[in-house]
Amino acid sequence: MPLIAHPQSMAFEAPLALTSGASIAGYTLAYETYGQLNADRSNAVLVCHALNASHHVAGVYEGQSKSEGWWDNMIGPGKPVDTDRFFVIGVNNLGSCFGSTGPMHANPATGRPYGADFPVVTVEDWVNAQARLLDALGIESLAAVMGGSLGGMQALSWTLQYPQRVRHAVVVASAPNLNAENIAFNEVARRAIVTDPDFHGGHFYGHGVVPKRGLRIARMIGHITYLSDDVMNEKFGRQLREGISPKYSTQDVEFQIESYLRYQGDKFSEYFDANTYLLITRALDYFDPAGRHGGSLAQALAQAQAKFLLVSFSTDWRFSPARSREIVKALLDNRRDVSYAEIDAPHGHDAFLLEDPRYHAVVRSFFERIGSGVAA
């Protein structure tokens, strides 16, 4: 029997102070849980999501085909993160467009959608909001916090903001901050959105339009960075879309890779919110725990007390293994307990979402160690 997921939500009236100096009150967080919380509440695992994912981490929605959670191959009964043993929580972040309060929701002060007026949020703000949800669920400490990519940044931040509440941290295909190239990719994607004539300064909801052209381009740019050169060449190479002769057109779709990217862009523009894209990519840009310690990552991570597992992938050039090794070194400089796996995989950044036996075996082994110290 598949794991059946049940979306939930929780409202918070008290203002949440944000890194920017602003605050937000009267917000809602969407979340899902899988498995059972044990008697001493010691088996909770928080899973943090990446840019375009959500709280729907695992399982399926009853009666809905193709509704698997985004990390369903990792989390569930008998899987590397075994929901027969752990109580797993997925939370949709503030500012997202999958149930938690975000730009498309009504601003209590005006009664109109927030749009561009939604406050800028950071990784640290998301962690604080997640902590409030855990407080409300009666969970004082986490057996583990886990995430890939931007989710890995949140997992790392948990160990710094709430070191006493996190016993283990799993950081997959992530980095201690974005390099200039990554920030540049994010900025080009944002420019594509804000220069779309249908963007209307972020207040497009009232105009009955969606800046789909900008969203399509943003997704195409992002998708290129998630795949490795090897995967793109293997899947598409230089194959023409139609026939064996080019049309010699600057406007038509000529190559299979062009067709694929346009398909991904079209699909993304149908379900993702443009303002959310701006918010989340900016949160990625801002994340830099070492920045508050004169650029010293070792000093930033000195306060972490958790035991760590870091995983990277050989062909991931967006969050390269070298970035994970920076975190490993900083933790070792502080004599922290760290395990590190560098998986030789051809899939690029997207490898963290795929079912690679070596990768899953590493995660399974780590969670079996965690589980040995958790009451039934």
Automatic annotation (TrEMBL):
GO terms for molecular function: homoserine O-acetyltransferase activity. The keyword Acyltransferase applies. It is found in: Cytoplasm. It comes from the Bacteria. Residues 43-355 form the AB hydrolase-1 domain. The active site is at S149, D316, H349. Its main location: cytoplasm. InterPro entries: AB_hydrolase_1, AB_hydrolase_fold, HAT_MetX-like. Its EC number is 2.3.1.46. The keyword Mitochondrion does not apply. Pathway: Amino-acid biosynthesis; L-methionine biosynthesis via de novo pathway; O-succinyl-L-homoserine from L-homoserine: step 1/1. Keywords: Acyltransferase, Amino-acid biosynthesis, Cytoplasm, Methionine biosynthesis, Transferase. The record marks R318 as: Important for acyl-CoA specificity. It catalyses: L-homoserine + succinyl-CoA = O-succinyl-L-homoserine + CoA. Substrate binds at R219, D350. SUPFAM superfamilies: alpha/beta-Hydrolases (SSF53474). It holds the Pfam family Abhydrolase_1. Transfers a succinyl group from succinyl-CoA to L-homoserine, forming succinyl-L-homoserine. Homodimer. Belongs to the AB hydrolase superfamily. MetX family. This is Homoserine O-succinyltransferase. It comes from Ramlibacter aquaticus.
